[in-house]
Amino acid sequence: MEIRDTSPADAAEMAELLNAIIAIGGTTAHQEPKTPDQVRQGYIDGPGVRTSVLACEGGRVIGWQSIEHWEGGFHIGSFVRPGIQARGVGAAMFARTLAQARAAGIPEIIASIRADNVPGLAFYAKMGFRDFAQDPDFALKDGRVVGRVHRKLSLV
Predict the structure, then answer these.
(1) How far apart are CA 155 and CA 30, in angstroms?
(2) What is the dihedral sign for C-alpha 93, 28, 45, 83?
(3) According to its UniProt record, what is one Pfam family this protein matches (predicted)?
């Protein structure tokens, strides 16, 4: 597995991965498919993006992770190809993300996770994130209330 920084050329494959996760449902608050340009702006080189790394295996993107300055904080998003979660991809990306966040002077990283996303909650807990807020009324567009847990990791 190779962990490297993203580039604009990765946007289409990153969008494909994210859209596969959205289509399955259950592990992301995103509900509408994203275009490569939306992924580029939000996760690669848009004005709010502070870090952006991806994992490749056999020349294929198997995961990506980025930190964006949004709503006054530094928020992380982590996405791993369906079927290979919990095999170390997220942790490998996080090692690079964490080094980049520290180098950028980011004081803390926030993760907002659907309360029903058990693998996501486990991942961020394993990385050292701690709960600081709950949004039990967070609902999807179809009206389903899934809740949301907000966690943060202090880097200072």
Answers:
(1) 27
(2) positive
(3) Acetyltransf_1
Which residue in 63, 67, 30 sits closest to 48, CA to CA?
A: 67
DSSP 96-153: HHHHHHHHTT--EEEEEEETT-HHHHHHHHHTT-EEEEEETT-B-TTS-B--EEEEEE
Position 26 scores a pLDDT of 62
Radius of gyration over alpha carbons of the chain, in Å? 15
Neighbour count for residue 22 (Cβ, 10 Å) = 17
Residue 62 lies in a domain: yes
Report if residue 148 sits inside a domain: no
* CATH number (domain holding residue 69): 3.40.630.30
Number of domains in the chain: 1
11-68 pLDDT tens trace: 999 999 889 888 877 677 776 888 999 999 999 999 999 999 999 999 899 999 999 9
Whether residue 149 is contained in a domain is answered as no
The domain in which residue 39 lies consists of: 2-109
